[in-house]
Design goal:
Elements (H helix, E strand, L loop, with lengths): L1 E2 L9 E3 H5 L3 E4 L4 H12 L7 E5 L2 H11 L2 E3 L2 H6 L6 E5 L17 H15 L4
């Protein structure tokens, strides 16, 4: 979602081009997340105009946005977990990022990992 303190939009979503036209707090250039977000904007036909600041964690981005009243793309679940219930809206078109869990099958904690994997599948409605 697009998070920005005192966000004022008409409707439940905001266009990728509207977000790209604003200064953004983003993940550091060497992070893979930054590459996904850049591809999202490029595919939407509107590369971001200006990066205001680079950060390595969503916590730092959230804090910077709150102190400087600029926006960032952050996971909705993260914002909710941090107690942020407003000042964000969904992107149009929506952004979907791949997620991978890498582990060895001979890991001594394999059974616990499988419980976690099944939980994630249920939460995100992922077919095995």
């Amino acid at each position: 979602v697009y998070y920005k303190p005192n966000l004022d939009v008409a409707g439940p979503s905001i266009s990728a081009c509207a977000v790209a036209s604003e200064p953004l707090a983003q993940y550091s250039p060497q992070y893979e997340m930054n590459a996904y977000i850049s591809r999202y904007f490029t595919t939407s036909g509107c590369p971001p105009q200006k990066t205001k600041a680079w950060f390595s964690t969503p916590y730092a981005m959230l804090n910077y946005c709150q102190q400087n009243h600029i926006g960032a793309l952050l996971p909705e679940r993260f914002l909710q977990a941090m107690g942020v219930g407003k000042d964000y809206c969904r992107l149009e078109p929506p952004i979907h990022l791949p997620c991978y869990l890498v582990y060895k099958k001979n890991n001594p904690k394999y059974a616990a990992i499988q419980v976690f994997v099944e939980y994630i599948r249920r939460v995100y409605h992922i077919e095995p």
